[in-house]
Amino acid sequence: xxxxxxxxxxxxxxxxxxxxxxxxxxxxxxxxxxxxxxxxxxxxxxxxxxxxxxxxxxxxxxxxxxxxxxxxxxxxxxxxxxxxxxxxxxxxxxxxxxxxxxxxxxxxxxxxxxxxxxxxxxxxxxxxxxxxxxxxxxxxxxxxxxxxxxxxxxxxxxxxxxxxxxxxxxxxxxxxxxxxxxxxxxxxxxxx
Length: 192
What we know:
Helix content: 25-40%
Largest sheet: 4 strands, antiparallel
Order of helices and strands: HHEEEEEEEEEHH
Structural class: alpha+beta
Radius of gyration: 20 Å
Shape: globular
Strand order of the largest sheet: 1-2-3-4
């Protein structure tokens, strides 16, 4: 599994030597049970920012390596343009790990074989909460009254969606294998 992780980091070609150095430093001599790599690109401060998150499951820890390009001027008085944040989380501190699976089915043939179309992996290892708030409204399109605010609170440190259309079958299988590896490692760690 370690060799597959190394190959994936190199093939992804996102500061691969530096990322690999940080990931292998985290892993040390432990056995790798599973891993997940997630790359994103966004626009921030009038510039393109690329980010990569690598999650690695070992027999005792969830290892997190987050690499991010920094837009010019983000770190005042510092010429740095790349940040790597690493974290080692004991498996006993890892909370909920959820895999939501979305299938495409033929509604006219309910017993036909469903096709797995999308997977959303959500993982929590701290008590982080994300709060999204906005103005509340009512069903009356003519209403001008103030209705206060509404929102939702979401738990979780990590959530990513993998779909056949955008990512291909490999990444869906890879995400499900990561969830299974984490479940196996957590179960093994608690039975010791």
